[in-house]
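Lines hold sequence, tokenised fold; shown next:
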Amino acid sequence: MNHLKLTAGALTLSTMLASPLLAQTELTMWYHGAGNEVESNIINQIVSDFNASQSDWSVSLESFPQGAYNDSVVAAALAGNLPDILDVDGPVMPNWAWAGYMQPLPLDESLIEDFLPGPKGYWDGELYSIGLWDAAVALVTRQSTLDALGLRTPTLEEPWTGEEFMAALDAAKASGDYEYAFDLGMAWTGEWYPYAFSPFLQSFGGDIVDRSTYLTAEGALNGDAALEFGEWWQSLFAEGYAPGTSQDPADRDNGFVEGKYAFSWNGNWAALNALNAHDDTLFLPAPDFGNGPKIGAASWQFGVSGTSEHPDGAAAFIEFALQDQYLADFSNGIGLIPATASSAQMTENYADGGPMAVFFELTEAQALVRPVTPGYVVAAKVFEKALADIANGADVADTLDAAVDEIDNDIEANSGYGHN
């Protein structure tokens, strides 16, 4: 009998030692990519690899459709049901950090010193999130278009000036070969507006808010530079250069490849479609309207929720996900810009000489993050409405003044969002 007891005890101990997973602490994680099979496969592989790589933590993943994700996080925060690890859109992060939905990310920042600036999520001087990729917009056209219109090819070192850009649109319009000279993607709404269009405003010298204080939009969104931008913006539609807010979504997706537009303002996620259609496709830098060429930066990132009791475990998973191989996997799978130069060399499209390598260079040279403030989530919606209204013929000065009032009222109502 004693022998049997000893044997049973030894078997129990042996089983415990041989099964480290039994000791793993569970971490919950939410992700925005439900419905994208390729993206889901990659993130699930990272989770599986992490869980198998060590015996302390086990990540359990739940994915949401992107359109419902932010609302789900806000509702969970109000109910006290946030997961340990959050996926967050870069410009939204300061709002979530300010609201307590997230806590600083306990990550050795030397691990991300080689990352592009856009994927690094800082708020109030602290790192809250880090992304595995970035996204960039370029002026898309064809070499044959430039040749036919007698236009020089702009470079990062010598982009088109605002005057040259408008001359290019005039030439395309006068040729009669296109339905419109310029496709801005007006069929897309929401975050596309501040991400894609505020860089034009910033190149003119304005901005959505005054970044020196983040306490007002006065002067930034309705000063002389912003008014000049607004008049230019309205002219694109009033003078027939670009389709307006009633653009057919199908034309946005395929109009350039079908030859309806001479130029298109579009992102690297759509680049392969253009390359596959036309082997002389070019991705050109943004034009310089007087204050330097600008494009948007910052995409989805990982961080630790404000209520997580295991920030060390959450950070361990995030650190694990930063391996170059995973950055390359996401790039190869969904076409986005890998966050490091070394991971770019492991990809099909962004390695030196690759068909989309220019986007990495554009991000390094021209990218500007959207205003880093908790008030951005409101300001972005105000900016979107103002630009849509101006495109539809509203008075530029009145519309921008009203937008400033709305943004400033929100900032005041939230006691400056911590900036003062």
About this structure: Residues 1-21 have pLDDT under 50 and may be disordered.
